[in-house]
Amino acid sequence: MNLLLKRLSLVFSVILLLAVLLQPMPSAAEEGSSSSNDTFRKAYITSYSTGVVDVIDLDTLTVEMGKIKVGNEPNSAGFNPNRTQIFVTNRADGTVSIIDPSTDTVIKTIQVGYQPHGVAFTEDGSKAYVANFASNSVTVIDTVTLEVIKTIAVSQFPVAMAVIENHIFLTTRSGVDVIDTTTDTLVANFLEGTDLYGISVNPDKTKLFIANRDIGGVTVVNAADYTTETTISTGSGTHAVEVSPDGTLAYAVNSYSGTLSVIDTSSYTVSNTIPVGSFPYVVGISSDGKSVYTINYGSNDMSVIDTETNTVINTISLSPGPFMVGTFMVPTAVAISNPEPTLSSNADLANITISDGTWDQPFDKDLTEYHVTVGNEISSITLSTEVEDETATVTINGMQVENSQSSQPIELTVGSDNVILISVTAEDGTIKTYTILVTRTASSNTNLSNITLNNGTLDPAFHPEITSYTVQVGNEVDSITLSAEVEDETATIQINGKSILAGEESDAITLQAGSTTEITITVTAEDNTTKVYTILVTRAASEVIDDGDEENEIPVTDDEDGNNNSDPSNDDKDVSDNGNDTGSQVGKELPNTSTFNYQLLIGGLLFIIFGSFILFITRKQKRVV
Questions:
Q1: Which residues are bridge partners to 74 per DSSP?
Q2: For the ranges 22-26, 59-63, 196-200, 309-313, which has the lowest average pLDDT?
Q3: Which of 86, 196, 419, 549 is the most exposed place for a label (fewest CB within 10 A)?
Q4: SS3 (DSSP) at 58
Q5: What is the residue-averaged pLDDT of the chain?
Q6: What is the distance between the alpha carbons of residues 510 and 315, in angstroms, rounded to a whole number?
Q7: Helix count (H) and strand count (E) of the chain?
Q8: What does the alpha-carbon distance between residue 427 and residue 281 come to, in Å, rounded to a whole number?
Q9: CB 536 within 8 A of CB 512
Q10: What residues pair up with 3 in beta bridges, in sequence order?
Q11: Minimal CA–CA distance to 568: which of 555, 581, 551?
Q12: pLDDT tens digit string along 229-263?
């Protein structure tokens, strides 16, 4: 039994996994159903039955069902003309849910009167007015602080509102109330004794179109003197009416007959009647007048009507019970008075400032490429820009930089390979790119920072600006090496024509006794500028013995041990007797010349004395014999 349950569980898991994997992928339109950036191109449809709000993108006609959770029995959605707020009235709770249309989230809930119905705003959007059906009042809300600032007593059972300048026209069961929004007081009432519901204003704001449920038609009133111009029969249970953007047509929904009446406003006659869904309670028109929308409470859907053909071209399913009064999208009059802001396309710069360098030409907003030259000592620069239109944004080499603020340091390499891109994006997305080519010049520094010798001392002492030196060395120094260091690491060195690294010891340079040897150090800068340092090295001459015979003078040098030798070529060699029969060899190192001469003199004297002594003895012996 357990095995069977395990197998059934495995099969169920596989089926569930397949169901998920095989679920249709949402279309691009569905994924971007709230892609519209303009609040006026969206519809917020309340589900009276479930307490949620469906959001429809009117450009793509895609719906996000139940996207926003609000209060109980929501029944109207009012649009602030400044496009920042949607006010949804919750009839059962006596509250208003404030929705941020940029995120479609509820940011606050405000307590108002009993059974709130329609919502309207002042033309500047600073105040909101909520009709409290069961309280016979209108709640006034500051849309900045989102606090109730006043409650106005009105006629019995207020429902919907329309705004003309500083007056609100409110439909009630007792006619139309007029509220002055500057004082927030009730100032007039007309059409007493009729059951009025929806209300609309023509684009010129000269006429009021009022849905009259009592007679099943639309009453037209002069907005200046509140006189009735005509009443047009449309159908059973006329709940709402809306005027087209050009003012030539009006569209009225007849809830009980499930139809939409098209009214010619020039003749005040019904030109067409279009079947829609069941129990349509509200109607809206697209900003271009090409589409009309009805919200059908009985069939839980929205009908989309093509105004060219006066036919339903689409039906969009909605959350259950979309019962609404007042509005679900921006009214035509509000849309006309508050057109979608024209986004700036100005991507021009007013100025560019650079921390260092010389421009090849003055700045001109219409010139997009510039050349700047900086010295070799400049290893980085910063830029700042000013835009002509403050709504534009700027990036410098991909990093966003605030207007008139300096960029991060931009490192420069030597040469003309430094490209700086300034990208300006206008409010409407227009992009303009300015290119700055920065040339950092090569170094011309040919100075040495030091010269080091293995023997001798520079005269004068080294200085980068002194290029000629002398050096004295003893006779015992037969060669010299030196090294040099540069002030600029990009410079190169040659010593007597041979390249050498800075700080590296040169090859030994042979010095002739009693002669002066010239050594040249050539420094080549990065820009090929050269400088030559000259060092004259003098090696002391050999010492000479003066015997009175200039032709037989014997040069004297010092051997490695400091001993003087008359002939350096005989160092470490045996002295022979040049082929005498004896064949004897001295086999000694040639003595020091001065010592040898002294010994020769003493030897000669001794030889004479010894010879004289022998001669004396010999003569004495002969005498004795």
A1: 90
A2: 22-26
A3: 549
A4: coil
A5: 85
A6: 105
A7: 4, 49
A8: 39
A9: no
A10: none
A11: 555
A12: 999 999 999 999 999 999 999 999 999 999 999 99
pLDDT digits (tens, 9 = 90+) for 255-264: 999 999 999 9
Peptide bond into 460 cis (omega under 30): yes
Helix (H/G/I), strand (E/B), else coil: 597: helix
Strand 311-317 with 399-401, pairing: unpaired
Q: Residue range 323-346: average pLDDT?
A: 76
Instruction: Please compute the mean of the pLDDT values over residues 108-116 and round it to a whole number.
Output: 97
H/E stretch holding 602: helix 593-624
Domains of the chain: 30-337 (2.130.10.10), 349-440 (2.60.40), 448-539 (2.60.40), 556-600 (no CATH)
What number of other Cβ atoms are within 10 A of residue 363's Cβ?
A: 13
Give the H or E element holding residue 20: helix 2-21
H helical segments located in 81-215: none
Cα–Cα nearest to 301, from 534, 599, 610, 54: 54
Beta strands at 498-500 and 415-425: parallel, antiparallel or unpaired: unpaired
pLDDT at 458 over 80: yes
- CA dist 47 and 56 (Å) reads 13
Q: Are the C-beta atoms of 231 and 246 separated by less than 8 Å?
A: no
Nearest to 514 by CA among 536, 480, 537, 541: 541
> What's the CA gap between 97 and 308, in Å, rounded?
37
- Locate tokens 């000629």: which residue? 468
Structure tokens at 368: 């997009």
